[in-house]
């Protein structure tokens, strides 16, 4: 997903895109989870998400 978004819409780096995806996958960040995440997307205690290669999402 990140590579597709960078290629088509946002060619300025992958951090902003991945950070947004992580936020959409966290159940404590938004009222409703917008994507279904598999892997370590961080915790409410401030632990950061795992690297892109260790996480997956689906809509």
UniProtKB/TrEMBL annotation:
Q: Name one GO biological process term.
A: DNA topological change
The record ties this protein, via InterPro entries, to: Topo_IIA-like_dom_sf, Topo_IIA_A/C_ab, Topo_IIA_dom_A, Type_II_DNA_Topoisomerases
Q: Which UniProt keywords apply?
A: DNA-binding, Isomerase, Topoisomerase
Keyword Signal set for record: no
Q: Which residues form the Topo IIA-type catalytic domain?
A: 1-59
One GO cellular component, as annotated: DNA topoisomerase type II (double strand cut, ATP-hydrolyzing) complex
| Residues at the active site | 54 (o-(5'-phospho-dna)-tyrosine intermediate)
Classification via SUPFAM superfamilies: Type II DNA topoisomerase (SSF56719)
Enzymatic reactions: ATP-dependent breakage, passage and rejoining of double-stranded DNA
- A GO molecular function held by the record: DNA binding
Q: Which domain of life is it from?
A: Bacteria
Family assignment from sequence similarity:
Belongs to the type II topoisomerase GyrA/ParC subunit family.
User: What is the name of this protein?
Assistant: DNA gyrase subunit A
**Species name:** Salmonella enteritidis
The organism's taxonomic lineage, starting at the top: Bacteria, Pseudomonadati, Pseudomonadota, Gammaproteobacteria, Enterobacterales
